[in-house]
Specification:
Jelly Rolls; AraC family transcriptional regulator; HTH_AraC; Arc Repressor Mutant, subunit A; Homeodomain-like_sf; alpha+beta; eight-stranded antiparallel sheet; 2 domains; about 280 residues
Length: about 280
Amino acid sequence: MPKDRQAAATHAGSRPGPEETVFRGAAWLPHGYRLHPHSHAQGQLVYAAAGTLATATERGTWVAPANRVTWTPPRFAHSHRFYGETDVRLLSVPVDLCGELVDHPSVFAVSPLLREALLALTDGSERRAGARRRLLTVVVDELADSAEQSLHLPEPGDDRLRSATDLLHEDPARPTTLAGLGRAVGASERTLSRLFHSELGMSFHRWRTTLRIHHALGHLTDGLSVTDTAMACGWSNPSSFIDAFTEVVGQTPGRYQADLRRPAPAPSPSPSPARQQSVGR
């Protein structure tokens, strides 16, 4: 893996343009690595076979640990951030298949069948003409029948609500009530409560919990203990944090952290073309 993956992934080390495909196939990326905003002419599935990724768009941020896959429709500007050493798998979905999936960014659960199909499509070359297209169709069918499981943090458009969420972004552990937050931004508790539901589709409590879990993923990846992570993110006790984390992420924080510690497989001395980065329109 080159030291400067960003330079290796772009033309002459420049940041990716709005229509540039940054990666195809698979690659190991270091903790904290970011891909700047870009879009694709085709749809894109991104799967972290190990590690965790966050996908951000103008509609908010989606987080996907290793048991979920992110979906971004064509022409939808997005960026990525990776937590832990991440075995990232990127798969383009032709426009003619995109209509089978939802028309907005989302996250889906990864079944054993879906996992193996994603790995096969991103690791190795096609051995029989048309095999990749047939397997991709299976992937799309699996996703079309799956319920969305988005660890999604939506972002507001209303100025009052944005001021309130900005305060929480600055300090996720901020021990404030909705009324206290309203006083800080010059809005009533009732107004903010209405805006959380109408603009973000969730309660203040749910939005803040999701924000805190986004930050918890980073702390756990950095090696902070479960107890210290709970305190740093605003939970009064570890058991409440464990319950909330398990509900949203689908595994306990201890299991998530243990999975991150699993040693990465040694890189092949002669990686196949599908395992290498490439850049294109």
